[in-house]
Design goal:
With 450 residues, this protein is an alpha+beta fold. It has a domain of 251 residues: FAD/NAD(P)-binding domain (3-Layer(bba) Sandwich). The chain is built from ten helices and 23 strands. Strands 1, 2, 9, 10, 11, 12, 22 and 23 form an eight-stranded mixed β-sheet that branches. The longest helix has 16 residues. The two termini are 43 Å apart.
Length: 450
């Protein structure tokens, strides 16, 4: 019997809404924590998704697993994430090839700070500057054009995973521990108790489910459920410098990722699967491979070996998302949504940037895989995840599209919800940061994720 054929129960101790990376990881870890603490089992946990596992961004992401963030508290979360990825790398399709980020001299201080922070939490990385940075890249990719590279960070325990395999693996872990997953069940509202905002029932298109605790792992659909719970559209965000800015609570961004075919295997000089590569050159324009026209005044690109959706050998990569605003059409999602498909200029930019960085990609525009490339995400007011209660018994994981790599968030949330009164790694990401003057600030990058 499949989950779509199972009758929805009238009650469950834990109702997890959303069957992406966050929802599945939370449900699996809840099952393990409940059993370990003698408080129950996976039979007490259900997962609801209006479409199915990995139907949102989790299922179409590029699949990078990295820790290259200028927001220091994120490093601890992602250290736990690697522990989850390596728990069963075969089931999750995790390729621990490493992650390399390269930049210009103006980012050297940022890289030094990131390097120090990562290593302080056990996320080992190496830092190279000047000639050492150039030589390091050349040793891996002899055709790397290093003229504008001044600093390199090498995360040794990072890598990438197949997105569909990852969500399928997480779903199987849930089932192995007794968690029930219900597809085609759409949450339509939350019935609250008479006082205090405590959610008594989760209302769905298949009936009501009485509950003790709700976990929201909704990705792009977070704003919709935020509104269902009666929360506002804006927030007064206070910063450490004393400034206060009124911001939209949620901002949608259009994601830009795609694939490029290759005629010969994409390998290192040592004939190995290369690390994921990320390059931001803030002062280096991207010039069109074919016309010589400047496409953008800065370069930001990432790529890795292709997986799953490639119908023949190639690489998958992307660039900075494009801001939409506080309103967006969420359904249909992804490649099925005509409004948010990548324009031809994305292919020009991606392939030209790749050609500027490596000789093997100098004429790769013709090899761009022409297909629908669409997806959107809902970002928080400071583009940094929110992990917190939004009602007395409703916990929200709002990842600001950091999600795929953040499998460890579910592990930490499960600890919190099963009795650990304080999980230090989650504290900086509470909603209260906006009122307490701890809003995260802008970073030295063109990209909102960093």
């Amino acid at each position: 019997m499949t989950e779509t054929e199972t009758k929805l129960p009238s009650s469950a101790a834990y109702v997890v809404v959303g069957a992406g990376i966050h929802g599945l990881s939370s449900a699996w870890h809840l099952a393990m924590e409940l059993k370990a603490k003698g408080k129950g089992s996976g039979a007490d946990v259900i997962v609801l998704d209006k479409t199915g596992i990995g139907a949102g961004a989790s299922g179409i992401a590029c699949g990078c697993v990295r820790n290259m963030y200028m927001t220091g508290p994120i490093h601890s979360i992602l250290r736990h994430s690697v522990d989850v990825w390596t728990y069963d790398p075969v089931a999750f399709g995790f390729q621990q090839v490493g992650y390399i980020s390269a930049g210009e001299a103006n980012q050297a201080a940022d890289y030094e700070k990131i390097h120090s922070s990562q290593n302080s939490v056990g996320y080992h990385s190496d830092l190279y500057q000047g000639k050492d940075a150039k030589n390091f890249l050349k040793k891996i990719w002899p055709d790397f054009k290093t003229a504008n590279i001044d600093v390199v960070l090498h995360e040794k325990i990072s890598g990438y995973a197949g997105t569909r395999q990852a969500v399928a693996g997480l779903a199987q872990k849930c089932r192995d521990h007794g968690v029930r997953i219900f597809s085609g069940v759409e949450v339509t509202g939350y019935q609250t108790a008479s006082s205090g905002g405590h959610v008594a029932k989760v209302m769905t298109n298949k009936g009501a489910v009485a509950c003790e605790m709700v976990v929201l792992g909704l990705g792009t659909w977070t704003p919709k459920h935020w509104a269902m719970l009666g929360r506002g559209d804006t927030v007064e965000a206070k910063y450490p410098d004393g400034a206060t800015v009124k911001k939209d609570m949620w901002t949608y961004w259009r994601l830009l990722e795609g694939e490029v075919y290759i005629d010969r295997p994409y390998r290192t000089a040592a004939d190995m699967d290369p690390p994921v590569l990320h390059v931001e050159l803030m002062n280096t324009p991207v010039v069109d491979q074919r016309t010589g026209k400047e496409l953008q005044d800065h370069l930001y690109v990432y790529w890795k070996n292709g997986a799953e959706r490639m119908d023949r050998p190639g690489v998958q990569g992307g660039t900075i998302p494009i801001k939409i605003g506080p309103k967006a059409v969420t359904d249909p999602y992804g490649h099925a949504n005509d409004e948010y498909q990548a324009e031809p200029g994305f292919a020009d930019y991606l392939t030209s940037a790749m050609g500027q960085l490596m000789g093997r990609f100098e004429t790769c525009r013709k090899d761009f895989r022409e297909r629908r490339n669409g997806g959107i995400g809902a970002f928080t007011p400071d583009n940094v995840p929110i992990f917190d209660f939004v009602a007395p018994n409703v916990y929200m994981i709002a990842d600001s599209n950091h999600g795929f790599k953040m499998t460890g968030a579910g592990k930490l949330v499960a600890k919190l919800l099963t009795g650990d009164n304080r999980v230090p790694e989650l504290v900086p990401f509470r909603l209260s940061r906006f009122q307490e003057g701890k809003t995260f600030g802008a970073s030295n990058s063109h990209c909102p994720w960093v």
